[in-house]
Backbone:
């Protein structure tokens, strides 16, 4: 499993609009992407910094989204973003959210 960690800064007083847009527009886009598993997005209330972590089946799925879906997400969020988000892709080495398949003893 791979994670895309996106750090972004919002324009002042746009957290509510970001949240609505993310829920209404971005999440449905993500759900249509091959290999998408989950999204975790968080911000300090009243703050300007947001972290969005999406989880993907494979590195190839995460990279395909980077070129096929992410540009549309940036356009959708353009009115609330302050600057260009920073993106990092990393291998997930442990998660309690997604439990690995258990091995059946013979």
Residues:
């Amino acid at each position: 499993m791979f994670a895309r960690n996106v750090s972004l800064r919002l324009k002042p007083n746009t957290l509510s609009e970001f949240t609505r847009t993310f829920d209404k527009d971005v999440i449905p886009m993500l759900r249509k992407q091959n290999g998408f598993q989950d999204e975790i997005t968080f911000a300090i209330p009243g703050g300007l910094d947001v972290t969005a972590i999406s989880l993907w089946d494979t590195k190839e799925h995460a990279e395909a989204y980077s070129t096929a879906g992410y540009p549309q997400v940036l356009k959708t969020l353009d009115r609330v973003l302050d600057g260009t988000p920073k993106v990092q892709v990393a291998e997930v080495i442990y998660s309690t959210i997604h439990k690995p398949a258990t091995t059946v003893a013979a």
In short: The mean pLDDT is 91. Residues 20 and 26 are 9 Å apart (CA to CA). The beta strands are 2-9, 36-43, 49-56, 86-91. The longest strand covers residues 2-9.
